[in-house]
């Protein structure tokens, strides 16, 4: 069997475990050295392919590659760059094929979310039209958990574990001080379009009165009066109130809470997020002392608290991507299939990319309680397995040890290309 | 030897390890059952003593007490309540003695920061005047690391480890996306009066260009032009800029950045913290895409990432407090003494409370670099040992396991007292 090279790239917002997928892809390629030659990684994702800025992964030691499994961020660089539609920007797609040809790349592994699944599909289709034998496999990743078909998206489980743990820990802090200090705590979490991450905050407590007392989802129109009633109820009955709010929280008319028209002294749009906005409402309407936190990148970079389930799945989809490619499958995505909830069992299946691209998965309505402020048992049954298990990284000198790659570049063979 | 009861209370802002000190106190009391009877904990700190709201710790199992070692927050409730001066509020101090008398309490263990050291000293002095034999020992705690004499304050090491780790992890995220996305990331950390926690962020990197590229201390007057020059330099040379900023960052005239007079659309003082304010300046002056995070309570509650050194020291000061009391020492505080930096060795010494109360420890000027934006080698040598070692809590169902106490109350024997 003739050997050809592989291309791997990371796309979109990175996660705590996208490098575990990279590790899965690269280690599997090394195990299939009969059919796969070198792995070239795109520097800064697909931009690396377009500009022929390729990293020669063969120069990285086995130890360095193994260390990717516990290194957050995107080790080869990722990008927010979406290839436009193929009709008007055909030249970009053709450039990709040219670069692949120039470096004998016949395997294309693209690690990203919905947009990159779409790109992966288009590249696959075009290469077929152009008669270039390319095997394109999409490796799923997104903290937003919005990919279809796959039961969950690698990257989400670790954010979920971080947010659930942080909510639990901070709640113990507030609970112990509420008699004379902070009564309301607001934690802002990611999820502009869907409340998956906010829902994970709901895992921190279960029984009556256990925090968080409110989860505010983008799926439920924000009703200030109702929210404040609930906050007051919690403070009066439990002594304090913990709120997990999605950055995507919005009013009935679709306006984001964070964009509520507040301006600073210079007339500039206020920069604060949802948490300070909501905390301000609490102060104004109820007068309670508050604190707020915005986890931002901390939540999606927190590899130190990754879910073991998530790490294993992230690795598995990377590994399986290579196995599918070697087995001759094309235009596919390894997807996680849930076999059972309790005990949680999962396996990887192969999904056609045409069914993945350009479709979003939203929270099922029955995952949110009737009153709109908490998660249901169905949601809990879905989420809980995803945060199971720990996979602490090795530490050195008090800090997590991370991979340090050489990132040696492959010599260019083509003229420059401006994107 | 006649047996008498002990009183233990938590005071001020809680930490990830204040319960480890509680564990040390209680376990040591149980080991000294020849001289110490029951341990009564104040519900919500000293307020519990004033209102005779006492928790009977003898009803908690050894397992529950052991679990305190890995439970964040203040398990018996803490408070922000400072006893006023003894001249004008003598009645409060006398009430404390009355409650102690009524419950045969002759050991007073007070777990807190500078204010509580002062209270502990006053209670000790008054009891002597009143002829009531009370042994008062202060157990040090504060994330602010501002207690004198002790080399460091239990609680600080864990926040330091959390902030250093979070800075490292988030920096990897920014670094991998900066070519096409966020160029500047701002992490706001605690420390209204001193830059100890901000300094800990500096541990994330060491070499030229390693993040954080700027640490903004309360000790250094904020100069917008200089800061922006440095941000621009980092973005141009390293592709991105990570800033760790103390909530106490202030201008030359003492105005806090967070109180810069910004108001929202209703004319209310803007609620945003330092991070959004600084991020706004970056956008306005340099136009870079930014993200910001405010760790707030997450940082001081993050027991899941506690420093093992910190946990051991927190336990040790609690344990030693009891040993000092049993040995007949009074008006003392167990203090951490650094024996050597490398290898790090420490021991506990006994410090007179009179030297602890009402004194603050600030960052030595030689811990901040000449340009005011980073930590020096001396600072690194001081901080580094404090974040060494991990002490992950047990996890259950994907979340940290925490202590669940009965918190049974002791029957009241005195008339009500209004505070």
Automatic annotation (TrEMBL), chains A, B:
Pathway: Carbohydrate degradation; glycolysis; D-glyceraldehyde 3-phosphate and glycerone phosphate from D-glucose: step 3/4
Superkingdom, taxonomy of origin: Bacteria
Requisite cofactors: Mg(2+)
Subcellular location: Cytoplasm
Domain spans labelled Phosphofructokinase: 9-324
Reactions that this protein is recorded to catalyse: beta-D-fructose 6-phosphate + diphosphate = beta-D-fructose 1,6-bisphosphate + phosphate + H(+)
Example of a GO biological process term: fructose 6-phosphate metabolic process
Binding annotation for diphosphate: 13
Active site (record annotation): 144
Enzyme Commission numbers on file: 2.7.1.90
Enzyme class name: transferase
Main subcellular localisation: cytoplasm
Keyword Ligase listed: no
Binding site for substrate: 142-144, 190-192, 247, 297-300
Pfam short name (any one): PFK
Subunit organization: Homodimer.
Family: Belongs to the phosphofructokinase type A (PFKA) family. PPi-dependent PFK group II subfamily. Clade 'B2' sub-subfamily.
Function: Catalyzes the phosphorylation of D-fructose 6-phosphate, the first committing step of glycolysis. Uses inorganic phosphate (PPi) as phosphoryl donor instead of ATP like common ATP-dependent phosphofructokinases (ATP-PFKs), which renders the reaction reversible, and can thus function both in glycolysis and gluconeogenesis. Consistently, PPi-PFK can replace the enzymes of both the forward (ATP-PFK) and reverse (fructose-bisphosphatase (FBPase)) reactions.
Name of the featured protein: Pyrophosphate--fructose 6-phosphate 1-phosphotransferase
Source organism of the structure: Halomonas huangheensis
